Amino acid sequence: MTTENTTQAVLDKLACSPYPSWVVSAMCAFAMPLSLRRLPGVPSFIQTPSFAAIFGGAGYVTSCGDYENGAGIATAWSITYLVLNVNKALRSKRPIPILMLTTVAGNGFIYGQKYFREYFA
Question: pTM here?
């Protein structure tokens, strides 16, 4: 087995797991107090519980065995999070917003590679 196939197998296994989405959901939930304090770079108090619920739902869909729709939901909302928050997080130069940003980007990559590979296959 080549390195490319091994990497693809690991990414596929992660994309069929609800845990990446649940990690992002928990991260957004734990960021709610920071958004109430209006910490620079952290999404607003409206966004943090909304994204926590959405990513929790994407994980639930994946845990029920609907891998394609779970991956689609996680990918779409990861892209939405990045579009809404990338400038604010990077301009803040604070570790928590940048950690949130990279975690969501990783989530989008894990589920996005599976979704788009299956969508265009």
Answer: 0.91
